[in-house]
Design goal:
The chain is of the alpha/beta class. It contains six helices and three strands; from the N terminus they run ααβααβαβα. A three-stranded parallel sheet has the order 1-3-2, covered by helices on one side. The radius of gyration is 16 Å and the shape is globular. The protein starts with a helix and ends with a helix. The model has no long low-confidence stretch (mean pLDDT about 90).
């Protein structure tokens, strides 16, 4: 991260425009996310999607994830940083496991630093952004199926 952020000029955007991804939501379709990772503990100051929004969507929209069973907001809403998760490969809301790649990608996008005083921690390109985590790699099988990828999209 120490090289990625300046390489693409994100640090200049932060400094010159004061923009760090506020109001942005990024979907990561990958191996999942370690949702308790410290890089995602700091919550966005201006989240675009709230827990109420997720509740409303679950109650009114025909999501492909609903085909695998009843979804409750307590299962898919992790925090304001991570307002929606679903594991399309294993047909559940547990997006942990399955490898570190998804956590790495999510960190590159939106790691929000450290909650430990006097430690900067890892910051992604848009540390104020929210993350939608759509896991398409199974904990058991190898690879991701086209069906799971299309369902996630």
């Amino acid at each position: 991260m120490t090289e990625s952020v300046p390489f693409i000029g994100a640090d200049k955007t932060w400094a010159e425009l004061g923009y760090q991804g506020e109001g942005t939501v990024v979907a990561v379709i990958d191996t999942g996310l370690y949702t308790n990772h410290e890089a995602f503990e700091i919550q966005p100051t201006s989240p675009r999607i709230s827990k109420d929004d997720i509740t409303n969507v679950l109650n009114t929209v025909d999501l492909s994830a609903k085909a695998y069973g009843q979804l409750a907001v307590k299962d898919v809403f992790i925090s304001n940083k991570i307002p929606f998760v679903f594991d399309y490969a294993d047909k559940d809301s547990n997006v942990s496991g399955g490898g570190d790649h998804g956590t790495h990608v999510a960190g590159t996008v939106a790691a929000s630093g450290s909650v430990t005083p006097n430690e900067e921690g890892i910051k992604g390109v848009a540390p104020e952004a929210q993350l939608i985590i759509l896991k398409v790699f199974s904990d058991i099988d190898t690879g991701a199926s086209t069906t799971d990828i299309l369902a996630a999209i």
